[in-house]
Amino acid sequence: MILLRMARPMLAGIFVFSGVDALRDAKPKVDMARSFLDTLHSRVGGLPEISPETAVRVDAVVKLGAGTTLALGRLPRLSALVLAASLVPGTFAGHRYWIHRNPAERVEQQIHLLKNLAVMGGLVVAASCTGKHAARRSLKKGRAGDRT
To answer: Which terminus of the chain has fewer Cβ atoms in its 10 Å neighbourhood, N or C?
Structure first.
């Protein structure tokens, strides 16, 4: 239980920081969002149009809100799943290492992609195991072991 209380804010910190940063200055992320949205609209028909600026700001609010609730241990499963889902577009839009010809850029983007996948994995673990859930599960296992 204490480990979850310590781990959640550590995992959530990057999202809170990223959300605040994007709300302060969305410009650096707008071009990446534009590229992603253009690709998405060309491949999937019927999607509503949204400006890249709006997409970046919505993403920032989602990351800030879900990051804060995860850090505080409020709705931790939902918060972790929302954060994991929020990573998907940026990860695959911004870290397409395979398009880079420069070996150094390619490796850097590959590392960022793998880092984001690792964070997604941590969020999935956080979503699957809350303190109450883990305690309940271990109690059930303990009772089942007593019967055998």
So the answer is: C
